[in-house]
Amino acid sequence: SAVISQKPSRDICQRGTSLTIQCQVDSQVTMMFWYRQQPGQSLTLIATANQGSEATYESGFVIDKFPISRPNLTFSTLTVSNMSPEDSSIYLCSVLIGGVQYFGPGTRLTVT
Amino acid sequence: LAKTTQPISMDSYEGQEVNITCSHNNIATNDYITWYQQFPSQGPRFIIQGYKTKVTNEVASLFIPADRKSSTLSLPRVSLSDTAVYYCLVGPANQAGTALIFGKGTTLSVSS
Predict the structure, then answer these.
(1) A3, A32, A36, A97: most buried, per Cβ within 10 A?
(2) Helix (H, G, I), strand (E, B) or coil at B94
(3) pLDDT classification of A85: cutoffs 50, 70, 90
(4) Pick from A30, A100, A105: which is nearest to B42 by CB?
(5) Residue B102: pLDDT above 80?
């Protein structure tokens, strides 16, 4: 398995601003993923972030809104840009190890 | 990716065995079946993964019939702390590097 941490754990932001979420893993992993979970809903995949290549975004998500960095095999960031109240969600990073996806604790974002 | 169907909700009492069945009629040859547990405000936690027949660990058992078109997660002697959302996911093996796609999950409520 893996120990995954996310920062911040929660934040309240004003609309129009941006927030960068950090994801740190205690081991080197090739595959990392970012998900969003809106209140009362299931998880939705935002993008796949592999070290050394551009992130691949799912339908409905674009790089200008959710830029992702993957500078090394243990770290990634997701930025939520120009936020609106509709971006209020829990954002989770996930890593793939041994055929199993492990998830971070999530970042709860509230946009006012 | 194969779509999954599972009950929206289930109720149980402490000490009972709970079986949650998931249908995945279009499962592919290289797909594995994975179950996750999620508590409110936490990331999903890996429970168990299998390909065929039966898999057992310290937390649960996973039963997969020969045609692999369904699977059953068995939780022995549940307690109040097992109240959570349980997700059944189907996806290819690690080497494909494909992110899991979440369905709606089953909300299990355990009462005393």
Answers:
(1) A32
(2) helix
(3) very high
(4) A105
(5) yes
